[in-house]
Amino acid sequence: MRRSTKYVALDVHQTTTVASVREEGGRVIAPTILPMEAGPLVAFFRGMRRSLHITFEEGTQAQWLHDILCVWSIA
Q1: Which domains does the chain have, with CATH numbers?
Q2: 3-class secondary structure for the chain?
Q3: pTM, whole model, 2 decimals?
Q4: For each successive 10 residues of the chain (75 residues), what is the average pLDDT?
């Protein structure tokens, strides 16, 4: 992926997460479906370059997902 600011929207479900990555201009550059597991989620975000802005909905998985993303961001 190109090195620029990216915007990631996560649609979180019980067993999967649908991720839509957009570049600064708004073009979708990486629509992806990921299993709701720490390893694949962390690997997905580690593949990104530069600044990321991530948003996801509040729900039953929100705290777990927040914790995974926070640990990944400082590791």
Answers
A1: 6-74 (3.30.420.40)
A2: CCCCCEEEEEEECCCEEEEEEEECCCCEEEEEEEECCHHHHHHHHHCCCCCEEEEECCCCCHHHHHHHHHHHHHC
A3: 0.82
A4: 81 93 91 94 85 90 90 67
What is the spatial distance between Cα 20 and Cα 22, in angstroms, rounded to a whole number?
A: 6
Residue-level pLDDT at 2: 53
Look up residue 53 and give its amino acid.
H
* Contact by Cβ (8 Å): 42, 68: yes
